[in-house]
Amino acid sequence: ISEMTAPGSRFPLAEAHDPDSGRNSLQSYELSGDEHFSLAVQAGPGGDQRPELVLAKALDREEAAFHELVLRAMDGGDPARTGTARIRVTVVDANDNAPVFSQAEYTVRVPEDVPVGSVLVTVTATDTDEGLNGHVKYSLKKVSDMASVFFRLNYETGAITLLWSLDFEEGDSYELEVQAHDGGGLFDTTKVTISVTDVNDNTPVISVRSALSEISEDALSGTVVALLHVHDRDSGANGEVRCSLDKDIPFRLQSSHGSYYSVPELVLERALDREKQSSFALVLTAVDGGDPARSGSVQVLINVTDFNDNPPVFSKGVYEARVAENLPAGSLVLRVRATDADAGTNGRVSYT
């Protein structure tokens, strides 16, 4: 009997036969075994009794796939005699149950460097029906163009596999709508949210937006030498960048516009002396907060231009020469020499 059969439906049963006559012959039937069924007895044209099985309560194959009943026939003799027949009712499945997902929503977090081909999550739906009615297949009901590039759904198992490398900086979350449907057209729907977590896969980039190629040695402390820009595409600690400079140099880094990490300035910290060092090749390094950390660097070349801060200096404080009194006019008596540590015209010496 189909589980969709309406209560009140009747099913004829085999009649009992008793060769006795009169009161000793078949007199009545009774049914025992299950509240889902009752017994009705119809009178035939010749006065015979025809038993019928009546469905008293709706069937549910998922609750009980079989029902065991006993039909008893009794005569009116003394002592009475009875005959019994066992009735086994098999409940035929109907597609009265839709697939049901184990979760109304699936959420999974995966690192952006998860290997291609990995199964990120497996959705599962069950259907208590049997056969084709209980066979569940999966399909994508709603998916964005971007998500369809990255993910593939196995229609038989519900496994969602990564097809393409993820990049947190390109997309940090994807939503899929998955449908489970049985062979009879019933279905259930669930949402799958795939959150991508950041991995420290980007190196900080430090660049020079503007810089002085030359600076005078008399420049004041605090003079801005270069304006820098620092950027790391990662997020959180992976994208937090600190900058540093070589040690023991007359320059330092300071914040600009309240952001030490993104727009540092390179400024003069103390007085220069071209005569001690006429140029600097500064290496600026940016290090992020990842583990392990990544770093990037840039070099800034600065030439120190001369300022006339050095006087000429004679090689001797006193020069002495001895000459004969008959030395002709115009003769070389001695040569004095002075040098100036400055450069260019500032270091060109003349004598009077």
TrEMBL record:
GO molecular function, one term: calcium ion binding
Alphabetic keyword roster: Calcium, Cell adhesion, Cell membrane, Glycoprotein, Membrane, Repeat, Signal, Transmembrane, Transmembrane helix
GO terms of biological process kind: homophilic cell adhesion via plasma membrane adhesion molecules
Record membrane topology: Single-pass type I membrane protein
GO CC terms of this entry: plasma membrane
InterPro entries associated with the record: Cadherin-like_dom (IPR002126), Cadherin-like_sf (IPR015919), Cadherin_CS (IPR020894), Protocadherin/Cadherin-CA (IPR050174)
Domain Cadherin, chain residue ranges per copy: 1-101, 102-206, 214-314, 315-352
Chain spans, region Disordered: 1-28
Keyword Membrane: yes
Chief place of localization: membrane
Protein name: PCDG4 protein
Protein species of origin: Ploceus nigricollis
